[in-house]
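Thread: "does anyone have the structure for this chain?"

Original post by V.I.:
We have the sequence but no experimental structure in hand. Need at least a predicted one for the grant figures.
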Amino acid sequence: MRSVLKTSLSTVNCQLSTVFSTSQVLHFKRASRSRQNSQLYSARYLCQLDRGSPGTSARQIF
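Reply from O.Q.:
Generated one for you, tokens below.
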């Protein structure tokens, strides 16, 4: 039961961070060298690791 709850919580966190990252990437689209952009890309990568399955909807958004 704990593992199921933990998985669902991490998925929700990932979806929330994905929505936030998408809006931020669109806002900073032209500033490819900005610090915020690099943070967003690393957050996206960690989000994929957290879900444990590459190629999910979080990756398709970008």
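V.I.: this helps a lot. The chain has three helices and no strands.
O.Q.: and Confidence is low (pLDDT under 50) at residues 57-62.
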